[in-house]
Design a protein that fits this description.
Order of helices and strands: HEEHHEEEEEE
Strand content: 35-45%
CATH topology: Immunoglobulin-like
Oligomer: single chain
CATH class: Mainly Beta
Radius of gyration: 20 Å
Number of strands: 8
Helix content: 10-25%
Number of helices: 3
CATH superfamily: Type VI secretion system, lipoprotein SciN
Structural class: alpha+beta
Strand order of the largest sheet: 4-1-7-8
Number of domains: 1
């Protein structure tokens, strides 16, 4: 008799999934992590040669580790990203342009299995003096986290939002 009840319960779950394809299947601990970035570009971000602020293009990456990210120069990473980052690049999650003095919520991004770091590459005009890359630790499963992404005058920062 319990077999019949279990079959009915399973059939009911299948109907639920068909009716609502985005329904969660399984416990939170085994679900891929969801990461959102609350991005703020400062009013004086990325000044051009005339001293005026300008937009910044950022790349959002999921990495297994950040060793290669911090070992290579800007052009190696941007021009040959797949080759340069190799197996450490699990996903190129997004590419977004942010205007000076703007705020935008990016994501949520689903973390690929094995993700240990989320990284940002910011395409500042003056890459020689700017801090154009940042990375922060994340969990690949069971988490729903929010980070602050700050694009300052010549520096990109990722900070875990504890609030």
């Amino acid at each position: 008799m319990s077999f019949g009840l279990a079959g009915c319960e399973t059939a009911g779950k299948i109907v639920d999934v068909i009716a609502e394809p985005d329904i969660q299947i399984g416990e939170n601990e085994i679900q891929p992590s969801q990461i959102s970035l609350h991005a703020y570009a400062a009013g004086d971000v990325n000044k051009n040669f005339g001293g005026e602020p300008s937009p910044v293009v950022i790349k959002v990456l999921a990495l297994s580790n950040d060793h290669r990210l911090f070992s290579y120069d800007f052009f190696s990473l941007v021009d040959k990203m797949d080759e340069t980052l190799g197996k450490t690049l699990l996903a190129n999650l997004d590419e977004v342009q942010l205007e000076p003095d703007s705020y935008k919520i990016l994501g949520p991004y689903e973390m690929p299995e094995g993700t240990k770091k989320i990284a940002i590459i910011a395409e500042y005009l003056d890459i020689e003096t700017s801090v154009w890359r940042s990375a922060i630790s994340v969990q690949d499963v069971g988490s729903n986290e929010r980070f602050l992404l700050l694009l300052l005058e010549e520096e990109v920062r990722l900070i875990k939002d504890e609030g």
